[in-house]
Design a protein that fits this description.
373 residues, 5-stranded antiparallel sheet, 6 helices, 14 strands, single chain
């Protein structure tokens, strides 16, 4: 007989792991009790699509990292600062004088420390990307609205640090190839006192009594192209506000004034202060005030700079792989729970609507109630 053998039941040994199975928080259903529906399949597809979109978004956010901007009082004491410039002025080199006057009372004859090459104006004004200050390469006013590049025109801090490690070299002056040398290219680096100062380019015999023979006013033309103007170590790949800027003089006596507020800046990748993971440079904001002047004034280019007593630290941070994995698990778990609730609610709505339809069909001649689920 197939009766119940009580003795055999007591003699059986417990299955291995049965004690651990008692703590199973994830009970399983037998396959014969599981029913697959078209509604469940649709919600599963939605769950996969949403999971992939959120996973891709989270991966992109992790790869870009997070940038933190911190302002602090500059603790270090710096006595000197480097200025880098590459300017083309539409006058002959022998007719120009370059000087620096700072708040400490020092005057530097910059012409003796910079390189001056004769060049042709047409080789520079037709260059691609040249723009006026406050306008883009198409002449449209730059209002600051909408998306714009951050940090010297680079999108990410690690890109800025990477290109900052490249070797700095000044570009060669284009050959004239028979063209007339009607302009002067002034370029190089200067070590100045780290105080407020005025860097200016004026005509020979104007501005300083000992500047040489008086230059005829008809030779004045301070139209210029600024290819580079930066403070601190020279990083050719980093874009500054005045880079690739052109300004044309509307008369012989024209005074161009640029007022710059310089902020010491450190760009670093997470946990890095070495030369390979951080660069020390300066950013600056600039405003222009240029106008035509009379003969009592000194025409020319005047770059007035002031050093702010603050330090801007821009650091890029990125979560560890473990933290990223935990975030991904949280996102996928949230999608799974949300889709489960969505499926449950949709099935409940479907059941309620079905009941109402069946009730409305009852009592109608020739109608049959559908009681089979």
């Amino acid at each position: 007989m197939d009766g119940y053998d009580e003795k055999r039941h007591y003699d059986d040994e417990p299955e291995p792991g049965s004690f651990v199975k008692a703590f199973d928080a994830f009970p399983k259903s037998k396959p014969q009790y599981v029913q697959r529906t078209s509604g469940g399949g649709k919600w599963t597809v939605v769950m996969y699509v949403v999971s992939l979109v959120l996973l891709w978004s989270e991966l992109g956010r992790w790869w870009r990292g997070e940038e933190t901007h911190t302002f602090a009082v500059e603790k270090g004491i710096g006595h000197s600062m480097q200025i880098n410039l590459d300017i083309v002025v539409k006058m002959r080199c022998k007719d120009l004088h370059v000087n620096v006057q700072d708040a400490a009372g020092d005057r530097i004859f910059a012409s003796s420390r910079l390189q001056e090459d004769a060049t042709s104006w047409g080789q520079w004004v037709d260059a691609k990307g040249v723009h006026r200050l406050g306008r883009d390469s198409h002449g449209r006013a730059v209002t600051g609205a909408g998306w714009h590049d951050e940090g010297f025109g680079e999108e990410h801090v690690h890109d800025i640090v990477a290109i900052g490690r490249k070797k700095a070299r000044w570009g060669k002056t284009p050959r004239l190839w028979g063209a007339e040398a009607d302009s002067c290219r002034i370029y190089g680096s200067l070590d100045l006192n780290k105080v407020q100062g005025d860097f200016h380019i004026t005509a020979r015999g104007h501005g300083y009594a000992e500047a040489g023979q008086h230059l005829d006013h008809g030779a004045f033309n301070f139209s210029h192209v600024i290819s580079e103007l930066s403070f601190g170590p020279y990083y050719p790949s980093l874009v500054n506000p005045l880079d690739r800027t052109i300004n044309l003089a509307e008369s012989h006596f024209y005074k161009f004034q640029y007022f710059m507020s310089v902020v010491p800046t450190v760009y670093s990748v997470q946990g890095g202060h070495s030369a390979e993971r951080a660069i020390f440079t300066n950013q600056y904001a600039v405003t222009e005030q240029s106008k035509e002047v009379n003969e009592r004034w000194v025409p020319g280019l005047f770059f007035k700079y002031d050093i702010e007593p603050i330090l801007l630290h821009v650091e890029e941070r990125r979560d560890s792989v473990l933290t990223f994995a935990i975030k991904v698990i949280n996102v996928l778990s949230g999608v799974l729970v949300a889709c489960h609730w969505g499926f449950t609610m949709s099935e409940w709505v479907r059941e309620v609507v079905g009941r109402r339809r069946r009730k409305q069909s009852e009592g109608v001649i020739g109608a049959k109630g559908d009681y089979d689920e």
